[in-house]
Amino acid sequence: MRINGLHAAGKTRCQVTQMWTDGAHDMPPEHVEKWRRQAEGHGVVMSEELEPMLDAVDGVMVLSVNGYRHMEHAAPALRRGLPTYIDKPLTCGLDQARELLALSREHGARCYSASSLRFAAEVEEASRDSTLGELVAVEAFGPGTLSKVMPGLFYYGVHTIEMVDALWGPGVARVRCESTADRDLLQLAYHDGRHASLRMERAGAYDFGATLQGRGGVRSFKIDFDGVYDRLVEGMAGFFEGKDPPASLERIVENIAVMEAGNQSAEEGGRWVTLPGLV
C-alpha cells in the first residue's frame, strides 16, 4: 500500500481507506486473499456494497486486472464526478474507451490510466534530451506475454505502446501488426510522418527499452525498474490532490485504438489498419 506509506511519511494527504470487490477475479484465489490481508493490515476496510463506499470517499482507483470490466467498475464513480484512476489497460475496446471519455466530460470527473513504463527515469530523461533535435523515429521493445483474459496487445503490449506514447505523444494515423507464436511486430505511422517500430518478444528476457532517432542524434536505453512504481504512485497521489493527470485521458483512448487496430491487423494477416476518429 504505497499511497498509505506516502501518507504516513507526510508526503501526501491521500489515504486509501476502503475497498470493494464484486468477488469476480481473474487471478488465483490465494493471491486475492493475500492482497486483501495486506490492505487490511494498512487499515483499509472492506465495504460490502459499492454505493456506500462511493459516498464515503473522495476518489476511486479501479484496479481489477481484467480490462473488459473497467467500464462497469469505473462508470459509477465517474457519474458521481469522482476523480478516478483506472489500471492499464483503460479498457479492452475503443467503444468502451470512448464511453469512459464521454462520462468523464459529462460529469466533470477527472480520469486517467497509465502503465508504470510512463514513469521510468530513462523515458523521462530521453523525452527531455534536446541534443536529439526533432524526433523522427523510435524503435522500442518489451515483453509480449499473452493472456486468455485479454487478447493480443491489450495484456502486455500496452506497456510498450504507452512507453512510446510517453516519449513523443499522440497522433497515430494507422497501424500494422504481424503476430507469431514468439512475438508481435507493431508499426505505427503518424499523421505528421513520424514512425515507430515496436517489438514485443514472448521468449526473450523481461526487458523494456527503446532507441530514439532525431535529426541531431540517436539515444538508446533499457529500463531500470528501480523507483518506477514509486513514481507511478506519486503520480496517482498528485492526481487525487488536484494536479493534472500524468497522461490525458484522450491520449490513453488513442492507445486503446492503437491496440484494437493492432489486434485487427494481426488477425487479418498484417495489413495496415487506419485508426477511426476517437471522439
Describe the structure.
With 279 residues, the chain is of the alpha/beta class. The protein has 2 domains: 2-116 and 229-247, NAD(P)-binding Rossmann-like Domain (Rossmann fold), CATH 3.40.50; 121-224 and 257-274, Dihydrodipicolinate Reductase, domain 2 (2-Layer Sandwich), CATH 3.30.360.10. Helices cover 37% and strands 22% of the residues. It contains 9 helices and 12 strands. Strands 11-10-6-9-8-7-12 form a 7-stranded mixed β-sheet. A 3-stranded parallel β-sheet has the order 3-4-5, with helices on both faces. Strands 1-2 form a two-stranded parallel ribbon. Strand 7 and strand 8 form a beta hairpin. The longest helix is centred in the C-terminal third of the chain and has 19 residues, at 249-267. The protein starts with a helix and ends in a 5-residue tail after the last strand. The mean pLDDT is 94.
